[in-house]
Each structure stands twice: as C-alpha cells, then as structure tokens.
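Ticket 4471: requesting a sanity check on a complex prediction with zinc ion. Repro inputs:
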Amino acid sequence: MKKRKANQRVFIIILLIIIFVVCITVLLFNLTTSKTLKMDKNDKDFNKDYTTFYEDITYVNSDNFIKNINSLIELGYSIQDINLIYDTFDEKEINLITNSKYDSDITNYIKLDYFKKENIGRYIAFKYDENKLDYSYFAKDFKKDLTYEDIVTYVNIGLDQEYYTNVNNVSNETDIKILVNKYHKLDEDYEPDDLVLIDTKYATEGQKLRKEAALAFENMAKAAKEDKINIYAGSAYRSYDYQDWLYNKYVLEDGFTNAETYSARAGYSEHQTGLAVDILNKNWTLIDEDDSEYTWLVNNSYKYGFILRYKRGYENITGYMFEDWHFRYLGKEVANDIHNFNLTYEEYIAKQA
Ligand SMILES: [Zn+2]
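Returned structure tokens:
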C-alpha cells in the first residue's frame, strides 16, 4: 500500500511539472509572437485589414507604432521592408519615410556604408523629384537615371538643395582637409595662422599659402623644372575682402549668371583656406589644358599632395566650370586616393562612412 501511495505522489508531481511547463510556454509565446495583436487590438489605429501584416511584424514598443506601420503598409512597403525600417531607423527618421513617396528598394541605400540615416527623406525625394537640380546652372550635366550610389553621394554633398542654402560654417576647421564650397563657408575674419610667402623663384610677388602647402608647391615646381616644365604660383591665399572685391568685379564685367560659374562669393572661396593656388605656365599666364605644364600637373601633382580641383565633366558636382589652373593642396594621402579613384573632393568627402 505504502509503495502505491508513493508512486501516486511521484505521478502527481510529474503531472504538475508538465502543467507548469506548458503554462510558461504558452505565456511566453503570447508575450512574443502575438504581442502586437493581443496588446493593440484596442489601439485607435488598429486596422483589421492589416492583421496578417501585424502578425509578422516584430513588435516595437513605441507610441505611434501601429499608426506608422499602417502608413508604411499603405505606401507599399512589405513586411520585410517594415521590419528592416524599424531595425535601422529611429522614430524621427521613420516619420521622414512615412512622409515620402514609396521607394521600391530601400535596402539599396542602407547597404552603402556612407549612407546617412538622417538623410533618408532627402534620398527618396531626390530619387523621385522630376525637377531635381533645375536651379543648378550645371543641371544639364546630370544623368536622368541615377544609381543609389549616386543619390546617396549627391545628397550627402548637398546637391539636392540649392547652392548657398543649408550652409555649414567651417571656420573652426584647421585641418588641411577642410572643405570649402557652395555649401561650406568661412567667416569674414578667417585667416590661417601659418601662411608663408612662396619662394619667388616659383611664384609671383607676395603669394602666400599655408606652410605645408607652400613647401609642397615649391617641391613640385622644383621637380617640374627637372622635367623641363616651368610652373609658377599665381593667385594663392586670398582674404575675404579681396575675394569680395574680385567676385563683384566679375559680376559687373560678366554678369551675375556667368560670374557664378567660375567665381566664388566671399567666404565660399577655397583660396581663403590658404590651400588653393591658380598655377601659371612658363609665360606667366594661367595654365590652359593644351599646355605641357597642364599635362605634367595632371600626371604628377598628386605625388606632391595637389589635385586639379574643378574638373571637366564634374561641374554639376563641384558647382564650378572646368578650371585648368586651379589646384588644391590636400596632402599626399588624400590626393593619391582622389587620383586613383578619379573623384572630386566633394565625392571623396561624401563617400566617407
Ligand atoms: Zn582659383
């Protein structure tokens, strides 16, 4: 009898354990997989028609979750897309997506390592904007069908917005990698503190560059001379006031529209960084692309840390017409990369992760 009772007790204990495990499993299952359905059926945004979507969307505890999910479904996004969107973006960025057109393959932006989450609304707008760059004086150079890589690069540069809008002040930047263009400006009193005169063996009187750039220029001119090529620094560092005078002179002589394609407004000129130089040929006139000096520079300048800054065919990106004579010092490493990958400086910066 005693033995039978003991067996019965063991059986009851095992039964209790089984019941307990089943209960826990059911509870956990409810908490995870069907949490959305269970928890939010009473939400004012809950839409019965989307139940099948809700079941497969990973629940995220945020205020407007169902509302946002509905917007994404209505735009055309798949369950996979929606899960990816919630994995990648925060609430603010998701609002940018729900306020944009449907993008057929949002994953294409995300997989680029220089894609910037906060720009997602601008990428989509740029892709689907029929009038993109109408305002740009180089709009005709833009391709009709841009790749996702182009879109991310161009928007990172700022090209989805008019020149001289959404401007960044970079006056705190002391690095030689400073970027100054139609979206990055310098203050009126910005003047590098390491400007030095360039040796007049290789420059017109009084031309200054930042020390490192001046030395690099002299070394480059010396090397060119060994190859029987004579180059000289024409206009190098320019103050804000001088640039202002120059720009206004061009506007008066040539008209606003033309001047804008080759002259920078004060504060937007690379010459104010003390890292840009207009190079002269053996006749002490601005280099032309037919000159042997030009060919030598295109093939060798990167070895000394200089790049041709405003290339032909890239006017839409740099915002300037082709300038055979304008070179920029960036140091050997960056100049080498730009030379090897055939980029503009704008693209080089925009493609940094
Ligand atoms: Zn120049």
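Notes from triage: Residues 2-32 form one domain. Leaving this open until the requester confirms.
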